[in-house]
């Protein structure tokens, strides 16, 4: 007996996108495990009360995100679930991705030296006009773009950061080379916006799609601000998980 799922046709959200989100939620919850086969299009069409073309569009969107894969003649299979990304005192991209059996990588896509304006001076607790290193980074998991981020550091503290990050692809390793053995997250602020053209190109998403904006400040072991980051997250590929307070 086919289970029926009711869609809200007055929600102002395209039906195919509602189906996409419903399937994605089930994949995240474990209802469909990695490597498992999705039900046939005809069965999904009956479940959602739509035609097969609408189901096919939802599946195509999930396939373009790398969540599903189509095997000719065999069906559609779960390639990977959206990345679960915990936000906490020790948020480390490489550790989080590796812990979910995916291959992490960091790519340097730009850098510059600039003077701290009032906002950045406040975030990093440095005098106005202090020289900062600005780094543009793309973080990927299994080759799929996840986060495009802009990071700022006081140049005097990490003078070789750009070269070290370009070589290693790891922020933690690059900081270690500067003598900074550990760091912790002070705070995280999460908002949303429509993706900008340059970020859309880096993330491989369409203009008009939303991205999560994650702003954070990291402290060194002495409690001194070390890094301010403004990351733009592909909302369809990652779920941010914020732990409850103590």
From TrEMBL:
Pfam families in the cross-refs: GntR (PF00392), UTRA (PF07702)
Keywords assigned: DNA-binding, Transcription, Transcription regulation
Chain ranges of the HTH gntR-type domain: 13-81
Record InterPro entries: Bact_HTH_transcr_reg, Chorismate_lyase_/UTRA_dom_sf, CP_lyase_PhnF, Tscrpt_reg_HTH_GntR, UTRA, WH-like_DNA-bd_sf, WH_DNA-bd_sf
Domain of life (superkingdom): Bacteria
The protein's name in its UniProt record: Phosphonate metabolism transcriptional regulator PhnF
């Amino acid at each position: 007996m086919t289970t029926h799922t009711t869609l809200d046709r007055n929600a102002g959200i395209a039906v195919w996108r509602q189906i996409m989100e419903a399937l994605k939620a089930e994949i995240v919850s474990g209802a469909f495990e990695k490597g498992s086969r999705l039900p046939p299009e005809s069965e999904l069409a009956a479940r959602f009360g739509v035609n097969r073309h609408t189901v096919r569009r939802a599946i195509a969107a999930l396939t373009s995100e790398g969540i599903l894969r189509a095997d000719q003649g065999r069906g559609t299979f779960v390639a990977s679930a959206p990345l679960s990304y915990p936000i906490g005192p020790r948020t480390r991209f490489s550790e989080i991705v590796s812990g979910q059996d995916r291959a992490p990588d960091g790519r340097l896509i730009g850098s510059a030296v600039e003077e701290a304006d009032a906002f950045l001076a406040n975030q990093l607790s440095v005098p106005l006009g202090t020289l900062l290193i600005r780094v543009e980074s793309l973080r990927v998991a299994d080759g799929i773009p996840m986060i495009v981020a802009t990071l700022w550091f006081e140049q005097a503290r990490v003078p070789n950061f750009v070269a070290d990050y370009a070589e290693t692809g790891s922020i933690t390793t690059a900081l270690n080379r500067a003598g900074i053995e550990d760091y912790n997250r002070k705070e995280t602020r999460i908002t949303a916006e429509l993706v900008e053209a340059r970020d859309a190109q880096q993330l491989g998403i369409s203009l008009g799609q939303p991205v999560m904006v994650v702003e954070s400040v990291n402290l060194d072991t002495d409690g001194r601000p070390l890094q301010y980051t403004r990351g733009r997250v592909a909302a369809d590929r990652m779920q941010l998980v914020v732990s409850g307070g103590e």
